[in-house]
Design brief:
Elements: E1 12-14, E2 21-23, H1 25-39, H2 47-59, H3 65-71, H4 79-96, H5 102-115, H6 118-125, H7 130-157, H8 163-180, H9 185-202, H10 206-256, E3 261-265, E4 271-274, H11 276-281, H12 286-289, H13 300-317, E5 321-327, E6 336-345, E7 351-360, H14 362-376, H15 386-397, E8 407-415, H16 417-424, H17 426-444, E9 449-454, E10 457-462, H18 468-482, E11 486-488, E12 491-493, E13 496-504, H19 511-527, E14 533-535, H20 538-560, E15 563-572, E16 578-589, E17 593-595, H21 597-607, H22 610-625, E18 633-638, H23 640-643, H24 648-659, E19 666-671, H25 679-692, E20 695-701, E21 718-721, H26 723-726, H27 736-749, E22 753-757, H28 762-770, E23 775-777, H29 787-795, E24 813-823, E25 826-835, E26 839-843, E27 853-859, E28 862-872, E29 875-880, H30 905-911
Parallel strand pairs: 13-14, 16-18, 18-19, 19-20, 20-21, 21-22, 22-23
Antiparallel strand pairs: 1-2, 3-4, 3-7, 5-6, 6-7, 8-10, 8-13, 9-10, 11-12, 15-16, 15-23, 16-17, 24-25, 24-27, 25-26, 26-29, 27-28, 28-29
Helix pairs in contact: 1-2, 4-8, 5-7, 6-7, 7-8, 7-9, 8-9, 9-10, 16-17, 17-18, 20-21, 22-24, 24-25
Length: about 900
């Protein structure tokens, strides 16, 4: 039979009721479409589906053999039936010793001839409908058996052979036919009826016919029962096959999609199966891995000693293991697998090998590594983050050996970094932080660990005992390195750094103590002028506590109305008339007396109190100016934090309205630092304030970081020249005069007034007039007056008379330097706030009588005698017995040495 005439398996549909197989036209159409799809080129990403279709639709046109066997009504071959029939005929010839008559001979010959082509008939009807298969069964089974039985019966009836030979031959052929037809009960009965029905047909009798009919009835009943039972068994078997096939498909899909793979070994741990994707990943053919040890799949060196030992242990111990991470034996690819396995035993409890599975662990491992990296390292700079630095410090401090607990902590803060963020944007700030991190790592080198705490704060841990001078040198190297210019987006950027240092065990034994004390040292370094380093000392902790108490007192002072406004006159240089006052805030503490304004104003800005304090100052100044002459103005300082508040115009308008004054009577003094913030908001704020009608003054001109460009847009009425330019104006070779001349010329060109601050001597006043300043403010005319005194002064008239020394005292240098004072053997710690060659302002001793003599230790190798000339609270002015010497650069020589070591409290108590 030609293969082209065979019907594909997909066109066969079994009726579940009677087992009949009929052609399904719809299915045939679907199969035709599937055949066209199979002939089309398969996509690369659907390789497995293509491989499934090809065997079914291309290489195998006929149905599978097992399905045809289920559908057959008779076997394709039954050689022993033909042998039995021929043997029965030959034995009958031997027993009869003569040939049969023509009738029986023809019948027997036809019976044998019809059985011979059974395979061809089977091929012709196997895939045909039931009617064709019944016809084929009739032609090669029923008809031959009937003819054989009829021929043998007629031969015996004609007395050719004995009846015992006939029944023996019939039973033999019948038994062999039953064996061949054992799968089909209906055909067994049909064959028996056909074979023995011939005997009844030859010897027709009522009893024989009834018996035959009874047999047929029983055959029908039994056949139907057998058909139903077989249909049930077939349905159950097919369900099991579908389950098995589904499980196989699921496992195949699981392997092919790369979600996991399977493996199996024999009792010697040699592979008997491994999923093809594993072989593909290893770039090896699957058959080459069979018979190799399981370990050939893994890179034992890359998996670590623990992974190798664990795998070998489980294999030798024949124990289960789960999710064991192993590195795949793939060159040039860091891939990791999670491997699980369990031992296998046969029915006799004999170990036969291992079977297990694996999954790709690479992405999960990378995700875990990324999560670990993010948990321990800063995502921007790659340095250790706050958490890891804290762990590292705890590890050093908790070391078992006491000698290993020595360490030092640097806390660093970048100076002027906010300016870079505000002017160039946060991307530029991020780029700057990356460069800072690189420089910091190079500066520290192998001496310690560097980390970023957040923002522009960094931390360094030196995990060994280092001498103080070496720590100081290392900190200076860090400051110098970070202070070098940077290139950000083609622009030159210069910043600085301040460093606070604390050491263990001198400054603390716990991480909390060290970090707190290093932070206090950092604050002291920044307070001393930035770009400096500072070691922790106990005085810093005392200052921090005093600062906290001062903050609480300042809050109480605001609530209780303890703050006061004092007013310093501003005098016109041409008319020597008072044109206005500058409002200056003062605070008289109930216990500590007058607190320096710079001290509590800075504290208010740091703590956020500047907003309510500044609003109070505006309202109070407006209320006071309402009692003055209409042509006298009042100037109020506005903090950059107040200027950034969008509600400032409303606050100013309310203060003016409540006081009932003209807006032009109020002048707001603003520093250059306001231009470091958002330019758009700054311009909008200037426009809003100018719309109110208030005057604007630029305070401390020339001391900020901005350019002159803002003068073209900002609507200032006055420029105030900082007193730092007035100081030293009378000294030889001073350039301050040229600077003041340039400022006044610029102001006149822009239609602005100028005010010189801090004028104290007649010489300075003469020069200020000479350089063209329109107004003067300073002690030469008047010190700041309280509200009542200012009102009384205005009642005397607006005329002002300069009173003061002709020349200035020696110029003073502002600084923050620790010193030790010796009074008759009693030692005290102190701090110099400003210094000249003839005297200094010393803070730290309370209520010192005037005339008290001290020996001041300015450096470890320099001391000088001095006398207290005045004392107010914890501050006193001292005069040196011999003036200090200056070098060629104008610097005081005594300050070049290292500051003296502060005495501890125990020494102070002992000395006292």
């Amino acid at each position: 039979m030609q293969a082209a005439k065979r019907t594909p398996l997909s066109r066969i549909r079994r009726d579940s009721a009677d087992g009949e197989v009929r052609p399904d036209t719809a299915t045939a159409d679907a199969v035709g479409a599937a055949q066209k799809l199979a002939r089309a080129p398969a996509k690369k990403d659907d390789r497995r589906s293509s491989e499934r279709r090809e065997p079914v639709l291309s290489r195998q046109v006929a149905p599978p053999h097992h399905l045809l066997v289920e559908r057959e009504l008779f076997p394709r071959k039954w050689p022993f039936l033909l042998v039995a029939m021929c043997g029965a005929i030959l034995c009958s010839l031997w027993a009869a010793q003569s040939l049969p008559a023509w009738g029986p001979a023809i019948l027997l010959t036809l019976s044998v001839a019809l059985v011979v082509p059974v395979d061809r008939v089977w091929d012709a009807v196997a895939v045909r409908p039931l009617a064709y298969r019944v016809a084929g069964a009739t032609a090669v089974i029923l008809l031959p058996l009937f003819l054989f039985g009829l021929g043998m019966t007629i031969w015996a009836r004609d007395a050719g052979i004995a009846w015992d030979f006939v029944f023996t031959a019939l039973l033999t052929v019948s038994s062999i036919a039953v064996v061949y037809l054992r799968r089909h009960a209906a055909m067994i009965f049909a064959a028996q009826i056909a074979l023995f029905g011939a005997v009844v047909f030859t010897n027709i009798s009522a009893g024989a016919v009834l018996g035959l009919l009874a047999g047929i009835g029983v055959a029908v009943v039994v056949t139907r029962q057998q058909v139903r039972q077989r249909a049930s068994e077939t349905a159950h078997r097919r369900a099991q096959e579908r389950i098995s096939s589904r499980a196989q498909d699921i496992l195949t899909d699981y392997e092919q999609t790369g979600q996991g793979w399977f493996w199996e070994t024999d009792r010697r741990a040699l592979l008997t199966y491994v999923s093809p994707p594993v072989a593909e990943a290893l770039k090896r053919a699957p058959k080459t891995l069979i018979g190799k040890p399981l370990a050939v799949l893994f890179d034992m060196d890359g998996s670590g000693e623990e992974g190798e030992r664990t795998l070998q242990f489980h294999l030798s111990a024949r124990s289960s293991f789960s999710e064991l991470p192993m590195k795949a034996a793939i060159d040039g690819d860091d891939r990791y697998w999670s491997v699980s396995g369990r031992p296998l035993y046969d029915h006799f409890n004999n170990f036969i090998g291992f079977r297990g599975s694996g999954t790709d662990l690479t992405e999960r491992r990378r995700s875990q590594q990324d999560a670990t990296r993010l948990a321990k390292y800063d995502s921007l700079t790659g340095l250790a983050n706050r958490f890891q630095m804290s762990q590292s410090l705890e590890k050093v401090l908790n070391s078992r050996q006491g000698s290993d607990r020595f360490c030092s902590v640097f806390l660093l803060d970048l100076d002027r970094f906010k300016h870079v963020n505000d002017t160039m944007g946060h991307p530029a700030g991020d780029a700057l932080l990356k460069q800072v991190a690189g420089r910091l790592v190079r500066a520290i080198g192998k001496d310690g660990q560097v980390g970023r705490l957040g923002g522009d704060e960094f931390k360094v841990i030196i995990p060994t005992r280092v001498k103080r001078d070496k720590l100081e040198q290392l900190a200076r190297d860090v400051i110098n390195s970070l202070s070098q210019p940077y290139s950000i987006d083609g622009q030159r950027v210069v910043i600085g750094a301040s460093v606070g240092i604390a050491t263990c065990p001198d400054d603390g034994m716990t991480s909390e103590e060290l970090i707190r004390n290093a932070d206090l040292a950092l604050y002291a370094a920044k307070d001393g002028g930035r770009g400096r380093l500072h070691f922790y000392s106990e005085e810093l902790h005392a200052e921090a506590e005093a600062r906290a108490r001062l903050e609480e007192d300042l809050r109480d002072a605001l609530a209780k109305g303890e703050l006061q406004m004092h007013y310093q006159p501003v005098v016109s240089t041409s008319s020597e008339q008072i044109t206005g006052f500058e409002a200056l805030m003062r605070w008289q503490h109930p216990e500590k007396g007058w607190i320096e304004p710079q001290r509590f104003i800075q504290l208010a800005e740091d703590t956020g109190l500047i907003q309510p304090i500044g609003e109070w100052a505006l309202r109070q100044a407006c209320a006071d100016v309402a009692q003055w002459p209409a042509d006298v103005k009042v100037a109020v300082n506005v903090s950059p934090l107040q200027f950034a508040n969008p509600q400032l115009p409303a606050i100013v308008a309310n203060a003016i309205a409540n006081a009932g004054i003209r807006a032009s009577q109020l002048e707001l003094e603003i520093t250059e630092s306001v231009f470091l913030s958002d330019i758009a908001n700054t311009d909008a704020m200037f426009a809003a304030l100018k719309k109110l009608g208030v005057r604007l003054a630029l305070d401390d001109f020339g001391t900020g970081y901005s350019s002159l460009g803002y003068l073209k847009k900002a609507p200032f009425n006055r420029i105030k020249i900082d007193q730092s330019f007035v100081r030293g104006l009378t000294e030889p070779d001073s350039h301050n005069g040229a600077i003041i001349t340039s400022i006044t010329s610029l102001a006149q060109a822009l239609g602005m007034e100028t005010t010189a601050e801090g004028v104290e001597t007649m010489d300075e006043l003469d020069l200020i007039r000479h350089y063209g300043c329109s107004h003067v403010q300073g002690y030469i005319y008047e010190r700041p007056l309280d509200r009542e005194a200012a009102l009384e002064r205005l009642e005397q008239g607006l005329g002002a008379v300069a009173r003061g020394p002709r020349s200035a005292r020696a110029p003073r240098q502002t600084l923050l330097r620790k010193v030790v004072l010796d009074h008759n053997g009693h030692l005290y710690n102190g701090t110099i706030r400003n210094l000249s060659v003839s005297g200094a302002l010393v803070q730290g001793l309370w209520n010192v009588p005037e005339g008290t003599q001290f020996i001041v230790r300015l450096a470890t190798d320099f001391s000088i005698s001095c006398t207290a000339r005045w004392c107010q609270d914890d501050r006193m002015g001292v005069e040196f017995e011999i003036p200090l010497q200056k070098d060629h650069g104008g610097n005081i020589v005594a300050l070049k040495g290292a500051p003296p070591v502060q005495i501890d409290r125990a020494q102070m108590r002992k000395a006292s």
